[in-house]
Design a protein that fits this description.
Helices cover 64% and strands 0% of the residues. The chain is built from ten helices and no strands. It is globular and about 50 Å long.
Length: 207
């Protein structure tokens, strides 16, 4: 999931961006920034609870989205196919280390995405890798960071899957309707993570 570091890490993105990528970046900006704002202070001293909510949110989000993506046409493509890459297992390890409560959150609205819906969903999950390496380095520079488990950030810090996804998008020739469905799926995914962030706040309050 994206964080405040995403914008700082955008310099690592490929310089050639396809039209679909350009539309995604422009037309999901508001939803993306609203989600970023939920966790903008999580690296500050004393913000361990916010970091825990970040992990709980991501665990619920990956648990909801990964099965749908694995069953989608995107995962069946030979080149650039989407893979789970152990990120949910890493989140489980981090949440277990912090003894966070079990919580799954609501189901994602799109259970059987077509290729273009899956591209929009994967854009959110894989795009979050751009900030993960930055976050990981920042935590390791902080003495208190040693107390925060980082399995998820470690599993998410390789930007190559996102580059492959962009290359795959570049190889597509979507119709206007298909491109629109990609953007709607991405915005829906950002909104889902934001709803999960609020649900995780409530779950941690009552646990």
């Amino acid at each position: 999931m994206p964080s405040e570091a995403t914008r700082d890490a955008c310099a690592t993105e490929p310089t050639s961006a396809p039209r679909l990528r350009d539309r995604l970046r422009a037309e999901t900006r508001a939803a993306h920034e609203a989600l970023d704002a939920e966790f903008s202070d999580m690296l500050q001293p004393g913000a361990e609870g916010l970091y825990a909510r970040f992990l709980l949110t991501n665990r619920a989000g990956h648990a909801a989205l990964e099965p749908a993506l694995l069953a989608s046409p995107l995962a069946q493509l030979r080149d650039g196919a989407w893979q789970a890459a152990g990120r949910l297992d890493a989140l489980e390890a981090d949440c277990t280390a912090l003894r966070l409560p079990a919580w799954s959150g609501p189901a994602f609205a799109v259970q059987t995405p077509n290729l273009f819906e899956a591209l929009g969903m994967a854009y959110v999950l894989e795009g979050s890798r751009l900030g993960a390496g930055f976050l990981l380095k920042a935590l390791r520079r902080q003495a208190p960071g040693a107390d925060r488990p980082v399995h998820y950030l470690e599993a998410s810090s390789d930007p190559e899957p996102f580059r492959r996804l962009l290359a795959l998008m570049n190889a597509q020739s979507p119709s206007t309707d298909e491109a629109d469905s990609t953007i709607e799926a991405a915005n829906r995914t950002f909104r889902h993570f934001r709803a999960l962030a609020e649900g995780a706040r409530t779950r941690m309050t009552i646990s």
